[in-house]
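From the pipeline queue, job 12 of 40. The input is one protein chain; the requested action is below.

Action: predict structure.
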Amino acid sequence: MNSPPKVGRVVCFGEILLRLSPKPGTPLASANWLDLAAGGAEANVAVALASLDQPTRMLTALPDNPLGRRAIMQLRAAGVDDRFIVKRDGRLGLYFFEPPSGPIGGRVTYDRAGSTFANALPTDFDFAEALHGASLLHLSGITPALGPAGVTLAQAAIGAAAEAGVPICFDGNYRANLWEAWDCDPRTILTGLVAEARILIGNHCDISLLLGRTFSGDGPDRRREAAEAAFDAFPKLEVIASTARTVDSATAHRLAGRVDLRRSHWQTGEVTIAPIVDRIGTGDAYAAGVLLQWLQGGSAQDMAKTGLALAAMKHGVPGDMIAITRDELENFDPAGADVRR
């Protein structure tokens, strides 16, 4: 039986970055110009949901300068509530993305150390007011990966949501380069955060990290085995959403969506995505599609299918974010990409 729809804003908490990209096929070291766009895991989810008429609020810290204002403009364009964005001195974190070209895969170079968000304190944010009446808090493992201050921020956000009775969605978004840059125990930190989540965006690899064990099955069986182990370990967890990706080339992938509940699960068939315009942000698009259906009381099948459709569409959109209408989402057909007239 489906749950009743949830009423209230989705609050997304995390860092917004500015993305700079050369033309495909142009190495960053020899680029003469860079395309500019805002991005970030949680902001990507906020924009996708807001464009689909789900009230959404972004909670983050940005520098009070033209770059910070550029990021806010991109959120506002999609209808994201920006009233709780903290503006203060500092810098906006950057990342440089070299798009894949032919047989050459894409590459990311970070320049985010010491950003305004990374240096923020929990007391900088009015978590209680921002979460008042919210239907969900969405955050990811990127925030705690930033360092001890990031761990404190993630714990504060989750603690405030738990106190307010707001459900939590946690996206693993494991970034090895960030975790390895400081002395930490990712498993212990992430386990404490996931323990409070009702929804986990993550696959069997994420669960293996959390539980310190491997799973012997193959394909869907391995994913179900991992999901059941996670449900046993985390009593508050109700939904686990993941994708299965097969990379045929840098610009041609096959993708399936999966949602596991405690007593059931659903996995879609694969869709072929080629040529890929932009791979970045597709996992966030999948998360947004899953959350859209969860908020509406949708089934595991509804969540997986909508998540897959939104993720597939994002592969054809440049930049980190996708902003589309409900009509565009509902009429999307991965097999029929001809012009609609």
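Job complete. DSSP finds twelve helices and 15 strands in the chain.
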